[in-house]
Amino acid sequence: MHMPPVVVKKRGVSVGRMVKANIVGVLLFMEILVSGYRFGVDGLSMNYYVLSCPMLEPIVRNTVSSALQADPTLAGALVRMHFHDCFIQSGGPVYDIPKGRKDGRRSKIEDTINLPFPTFNATELIRAFGQRGFNTQEMVALSGAHTLGVARCASFKSRLSDPADPSIDSEFVKTLSRTCGGGDNAEQPFDATRNDFDNLYFTALQRKAGVLFSDQTLFTSPKTKPIVNAYAFNQAMFFLDFQQAMIKMGMLDVKEGSKGEVRDNCRKIN
Ligand code: HEM
């Protein structure tokens, strides 16, 4: 069977369905993704595989389900992959395709320059996301993906050098320093619940306990602070904004016809 590298949305749907026990938010937004695509948003059709591979969805769902049961940290990795897949490629025209989201035919490490850096301040983040058509609130909502997963010391250690970044809480500097005692690859969870999709990321920012500079800047900057406070206060509002922004992100740079392909091997272009 020709097993494509699974349209990201389909992969996401499976994740959402399967982790409902503990990642309610992921479930919620993935389900909304489904309904969005059922109605044919931007031509990305849920029926793409109906004839060519009708068993695709259960196969993917079961595969990802077992993988997540074995390792719940996969949820964060998948959400991050979705961001990088959609965000990296620039300049390419966006096509409405009735068939499904294809893989790009270009895969270059230098393109990752298009990703925002963890050293960005709020103004730079607003500009970077603005170039992809996201407003400030959508950018803050998407940053809330850091409710899942971890950052490695290498991504934040520059904040710890003398003088330490003044936007960090003095106790939290010690926590980060302890983590970095384990070397560049040592992992620091973004919030207290690394496998739960909740709004604790935003309450951490309020306590000046954001892990990346680009996280904490959202609370430091008056342009974004009210949004952080709103999400910290109202988790439902965060979930809704996140879902909508993720749907929008899934529509970035959709490839049509020969501009895209279905990879035989996910790791390399055909
Ligand atoms: C606002 C700009 C962003 C910056 C500067 C940024 C940067 C980073 C960095 C540096 C890490 C840690 C990498 C490491 O040390 O291994 C990370 C992890 C992560 N990012 Fe972002 N990111 C941003 C936005 C996003 C968005 C929009 C999403 C998804 C919608 C996302 C999802 C994730 C997830 C889930 C992880 C954890 C991955 C894991 O634990 O396996 N990030 N990000």
List descriptors.
270 residues, mainly alpha, Peroxidase, domain 2, two-stranded antiparallel ribbon, 11 helices, 46% helix, globular, binds protoporphyrin IX containing FE
Share of residues in helices: 40-55%
The CATH topology of the largest domain is what?
Peroxidase, domain 2
Return the CATH class of the largest domain: Mainly Alpha
- Which runs of at least 5 residues are low in confidence (pLDDT < 50)? 1-25, 31-43, 92-99
Q: What is the total number of structural domains? A: 2
Q: What is the ordering of alpha helices and beta strands?
A: HHHHEHHEHEHHHHE
Rg of Cα set = 19 Å
Order the strands across the largest sheet as they lie in space: 1-4
Record field, number of beta strands: 4
Strand share of the residues? under 5%
Shape designation: globular
Name the hetero compounds present: protoporphyrin IX containing FE
Summarize model confidence as the mean pLDDT. Answer: 78
**Architecture of the largest domain in CATH?**
Orthogonal Bundle
State the CATH superfamily name of the largest domain: Peroxidase, domain 2
Q: Distance N terminus to C terminus?
A: 17 Å
What does this structure look like?
The chain is mainly alpha-helical and 270 residues long. The protein has 2 domains: 8-113 and 250-261, no CATH class; 114-245, Peroxidase, domain 2 (Orthogonal Bundle). The protein has helices at residues 8-18, 24-38, 56-70, 74-87, 122-130, 136-143, 170-180, 200-206, 213-220, 225-233, 235-250; strands spanning 103-104, 150-152, 187-189, 260-261. The strands form 2 sheets. Strands 1-4 form a two-stranded antiparallel ribbon. A two-stranded antiparallel ribbon has the order 2-3. The site of protoporphyrin IX containing FE has 22 residues, from helix 4, helix 6 and strand 2.
